[in-house]
């Protein structure tokens, strides 16, 4: 099936548009916008004005309406860019970038030297390798592919995969471990580090808790249903509890229907192949999550990547897709799907949703919105970026989110029109082959969502949302005052502090743990080589005293390690 702007007649059918593979020769009228796509030109009517796009010159012949207004920070979408200007992506001084490259060059050089020592057997090899009699075979363990792991990651591995021994709430307990062979192996000392302030978990609203009174309904469901289902929902694993959650999600998001899945990652990776396939085009933001990228690759659709939150780049690709069609044959694309996230988990930036919706309507594409980090965390009532920007949820074709962050559970959902959800029930690999959500996890999500919506008879949910927003703005403002370079939107609870140099990343993580502050540090290849960072995640369960203590230690460590690179202090 082609995108909505192609020649297709909408037929009355119980199947979603996503189930059709061929287009019918007619036009489509969706949301007051009519598109006529031929081999030469596209006409789009919006608010009484018509814009003709010539496929050769790509020039607007007539501009007298909605798209005539040009915004400073966006393409001709007519959508204000006020929210976008609240994002910060300050560039570091030149010497910082130079020293970062020099640092990576030095560790890489020493890595090659250590590989030479291993080759001549002056140093022991710890990783798997081919046996001597298999040296003439195709290598099973690619030496060069493991270069980063052998020589860079192993030296700093103590900063990741630390074993917790308590609830990962606002504070947690950590099992101390040491290494006698430069982080190739670890041993526990038997000592526990108590009350480490947790700034790394996605516990945005503080629902990852062990309060017996709050979890009473969850305990009751364990008694009633047990812990596991041991079956898919299409066989004997469909509980009334699952259907109640789906109705609640649809009501919360203000859409027609929803469907829940037991794993958030698989919600993306296993459902995208059911929506698009060969002959379809996916336009993906360059900073999309791995689950979106994997789902796009498994779909066999053509993938094109546009610059992060860059509406000029997206519109250029949309125009080229409409005018040129598929490679070689130049046939129209069956569908064009724009894939974005609500909040980007490494940058803390927020999608420019109103402008993307305007482009989606203009070029008759579909929109897939991943709200894993934004649902529950932003918006006056926690309904995500659609509420933050005051846009109609119906303008987003596929709404995706997870229960692993704001709701303190596990799994994910797909929401939208009823036809879409009905189609996925019979075509999604996650729906057909995956085990259904665990009953106590399902009840936990229901409990948290009812609290957010106020259906539990309290205002605790709204209080948590407002507390998260207050903590986020306070923490960001203080970091800016101190002189750190931070990324992201003012309302985003994901707050990256740029550290840049590889040596300082390691020293920062170790020093903060010494001060009983648990942080998450991220570097290459998860980020660009010059943009290593520490990522802080705010929570409604953080008290002002906790935040002030973290900020106090950040100020001292930032001075000691010379991490305050901002020129906007």
Helix and strand topology:
Blueprint: E1 28-30, E2 33-37, E3 41-46, E4 49-54, E5 87-89, H1 94-119, H2 147-153, E6 171-178, E7 187-198, H3 216-225, H4 240-253, E8 257-261, H5 264-269, H6 272-275, E9 281-285, H7 290-298, E10 302-306, H8 311-324, E11 336-341, H9 353-363, E12 366-370, H10 385-388, E13 398-402, E14 412-416, H11 418-427, H12 429-433, H13 439-453, H14 460-482, E15 487-489, E16 494-500, H15 502-514, E17 517-518, E18 520-522, E19 532-537, H16 544-560
Parallel strand pairs: 7-17, 9-10, 9-11, 11-12, 12-13
Antiparallel strand pairs: 1-2, 2-3, 3-4, 5-15, 6-7, 8-14, 13-14, 16-19, 18-19
Question: How many individual helices?
Answer: 16
Beta-strand content estimate: 15-25%
Mass-distribution shape: globular
SSE-based structural type: alpha/beta
Account of the 3D structure:
Helices cover 33% and strands 18% of the residues. With 569 residues, the chain is of the alpha/beta class. The longest helix has 26 residues, at 94-119. The radius of gyration is 26 Å and the shape is globular. The termini are far apart. Residues 1-81 have low confidence and may be disordered.
Which key features would you list for this structure?
alpha/beta; 569 residues; 18% strand; seven-stranded mixed sheet; disordered N terminus
Question: What would a concise description of this structure say?
Answer:
The chain is an alpha/beta fold and 569 residues long. It is 33% helix and 18% strand. This is serine C-palmitoyltransferase.
């Amino acid at each position: 099936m082609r995108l909505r702007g192609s020649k297709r007649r909408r037929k009355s059918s119980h199947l979603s548009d996503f189930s059709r593979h061929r287009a019918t020769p007619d036009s489509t009228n969706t949301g007051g916008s009519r598109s006529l796509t031929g081999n030469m030109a596209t006409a789009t009517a919006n608010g009484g004005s018509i814009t003709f796009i010539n496929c050769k010159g790509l020039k607007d012949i007539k501009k007298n309406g909605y798209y005539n207004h040009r915004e400073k920070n966006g393409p001709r979408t007519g959508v204000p860019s006020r929210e976008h200007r609240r994002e910060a992506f300050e560039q570091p001084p030149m010497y910082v970038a130079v020293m970062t490259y020099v640092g990576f060059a030095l560790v890489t050089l020493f890595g090659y030297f250590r590989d030479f020592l291993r080759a001549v057997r002056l140093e022991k090899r710890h990783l798997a390798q081919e046996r001597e009699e298999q040296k003439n075979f195709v290598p099973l363990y690619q030496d060069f592919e493991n270069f980063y792991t052998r020589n860079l990651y192993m030296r700093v591995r103590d900063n990741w995969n630390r074993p917790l021994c308590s609830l990962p709430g606002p504070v947690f307990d950590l099992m101390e471990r040491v290494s006698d062979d430069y982080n190739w192996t670890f041993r526990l000392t038997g000592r526990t580090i108590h009350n480490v302030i947790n700034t790394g978990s996605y516990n945005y609203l503080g629902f990852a808790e062990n309060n017996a009174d709050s979890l009473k309904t969850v305990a009751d469901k364990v008694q009633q249903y047990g812990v596991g289902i041991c079956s898919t929902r299409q066989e004997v694993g469909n509980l009334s509890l699952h259907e109640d959650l789906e109705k609640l999600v649809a009501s919360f998001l203000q859409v027609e229907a929803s469907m829940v899945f037991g794993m958030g990652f698989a919600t993306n990776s296993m459902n995208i192949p059911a929506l698009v396939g060969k002959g379809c085009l996916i336009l993906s933001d360059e900073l999309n999550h791995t689950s979106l990228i994997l789902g796009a690759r498994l779909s066999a659709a053509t993938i094109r990547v546009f610059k992060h939150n860059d509406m000029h780049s997206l519109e250029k690709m949309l125009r080229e897709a409409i005018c040129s069609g598929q490679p070689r044959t130049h046939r129209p694309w069956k569908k064009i799907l724009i894939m974005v996230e609500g909040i980007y988990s490494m940058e803390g930036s927020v999608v420019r949703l109103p402008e993307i919706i305007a482009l989606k309507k203009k070029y008759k594409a579909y929109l897939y919105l991943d709200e894993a980090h934004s649902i529950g965390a932003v918006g006056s009532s926690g309904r995500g970026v659609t509420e933050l920007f005051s846009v109609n949820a119906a303008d987003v074709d596929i709404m995706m989110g997870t229960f692993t962050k704001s709701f303190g559970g596990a799994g994910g959902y797909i929401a939208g029109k009823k036809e879409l959800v009905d189609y996925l029930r019979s075509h999604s690999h996650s729906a057909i082959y995956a085990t259904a959500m665990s009953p106590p996890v399902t009840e936990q999500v229901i409990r948290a969502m009812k609290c957010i919506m106020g259906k539990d008879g309290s205002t605790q949910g709204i209080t948590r949302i407002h507390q998260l927003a207050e903590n986020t703005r306070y923490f960001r403002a203080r970091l800016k005052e101190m002189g750190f370079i931070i990324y992201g939107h003012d309302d985003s609870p994901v707050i990256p502090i740029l550290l840049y140099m590889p040596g300082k990343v390691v020293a920062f993580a170790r020093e903060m743990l010494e001060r009983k502050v648990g942080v998450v540090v991220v570097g290459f290849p998860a980020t660009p080589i010059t943009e290593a960072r520490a990522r802080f995640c705010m929570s409604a369960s953080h008290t002002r005293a906790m935040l002030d203590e973290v900020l106090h230690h950040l100020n001292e460590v930032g001075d000691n390690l010379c991490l305050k690179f901002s020129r906007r202090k």
